[in-house]
Amino acid sequence: MPNIRRMMMAAAGSGSAPPESPHELWSWGLNCSEVPAVGNGTVTSGEGNGISTLTQIGAEVWTAVASIGNVVFAVNSSGQLFCWGKGNQGASGNSNAVKQSSPVQVGSATDWALPCQFNGDPSQVGAVTTGNKLYMWARNYEGACGFDEDAFISSPVQVGSLTNWGNTLGKYSCGSIVSLAVKTDNTMWSWGQNSEGELGLGDTSARKSPVQIGSLTTWNKVSAGQWSCAAIKTDGTLWAWGKNQYGELGQGNTTKYSSPVQVGSATNWAHISMNKSMWAINTSGELYTCGNNDNGQLGHGNTTNLSSLTQVGSLTDWRYIDGTSISCIATKTDYTLWGWGGGRAGGLDNGNTTDRSSPVQIGSDAIWEIPSADGRTISKALAN
Asked: 6-48, pLDDT tens digit by residue?
């Protein structure tokens, strides 16, 4: 689970100059021989085992980091993109490279701005450049990479020729065989599998190239999950669509929706993360969750599923959150780092593999800002 510290948000958000002070990359979680995803050049013995304490990765100045399944991507201050972990099916972006226990550069480009924010264990991988070009690779099943043929793409390939893809946090997300993005004109686009209506186009037909969702120019942030998606408009309203198997769309039911439907009537939503559950933070710093709760990932002290957004405690200091199919990681306005849900392989960095159904602080530092979680208990963090 990656996390970006205080000044990192401005650097990743602008997609231009690096932060004034260095950002170290720290990692913990799954690190066995099959999935060496911590990235410190070592492998932990035993299948499914990992490192449950923070471990520094290299000496680079990092500006962005994201995890997908068993693979991790990070951008440094020189605009270079690096990858490590189990990059099978072309996910590493380095031709036939599969298992990498330390960061390896993807190609030679120096204009990367932000790797895609991954949710729902997608098979596709992507990143946006400082010039607002979109590149994708890995498995193009059902056109999830934006191309016609169902094939493995082993290195980054540009999707079309447009240079207006959003390259700031929250503008681009990959879910389970579905890709979702907001352009610089605030239009929203989707492509890939659509068996559950997760493309938001009012039907269940797959699309192998980006298609605009409606005609509105008021979309701000998106999050594609496991067969369900969510988005925030520029007016602060929250919208969701897709499978809704666990009530993750926040409609008080488990009905499928193939077009965006508003979640409640509030107009102050600031951040969302979607998987089989939904996590949402409003401008008042309140955290709300709904959907699947098998591992306590909703944070309410139990494992009961919820079909309506319900506030986690009564605190008003939540800043940013990212969730997986089993857990989540979040930061507060005091820049402390918190996690809860499934703790397998030490992914919550609480020194063990215990599941937690309520938020627990990770370490004691007050230096963290933007977390990015992974579905297989890989945790990462950037710090000053």
From this structure: 322 222 222 222 333 447 777 766 666 556 556 666 777 565 5
CA 44 to chain centre: 25
Q: CA torsion 178→183→187→188, rounded to 10°?
A: 10
C-alpha to C-alpha distance for 372 and 64, rounded to whole angstroms = 10
CA pair distance 211, 202, nearest whole angstrom: 12
Which of 194, 296, 290, 299 is closest to 246 using CA atoms? 290
The highest-level CATH class for domain 3-383 is mainly beta
Angle at 374 between CA 249 and CA 51, to 5 degrees: 145
pLDDT-derived band of residue 377, with 50, 70 and 90 as boundaries? very low
Radius of gyration of the chain, Cα coordinates, nearest whole angstrom: 18
Hey, what are 98's tokens?
């599969």
Q: Of the candidates 207, 249, 202, which has an alpha carbon nearest to the alpha carbon of residue 225?
A: 249
Please provide the size of the chain in residues: 384
* Calpha distance 342→355 (Å, rounded): 5
Q: Which of 12-26, 100-114, 171-185, 369-383 has the highest mean pLDDT?
A: 171-185
Alpha helices in 41-141 (DSSP H): none
How many C-beta atoms lie closer than 10 Å to residue 351's C-beta? 10
**Domain residue spans of the chain:** 3-383
Bridge partners, residue 382, by sequence: 25
**Alpha carbon separation from 112 to 126, 133, 266, 277, 291 (Å, rounded):** 11, 9, 35, 30, 34
pTM: 0.88
**CA angle at 233 for the pair 231 and 239, rounded to the nearest 5°:** 40
Do the beta carbons of residue 36 and residue 86 sit within 8 Å? yes
| Tokens of residue 367, six digits | 């230096």
Which position has the token pair 């991954």?
A: 118
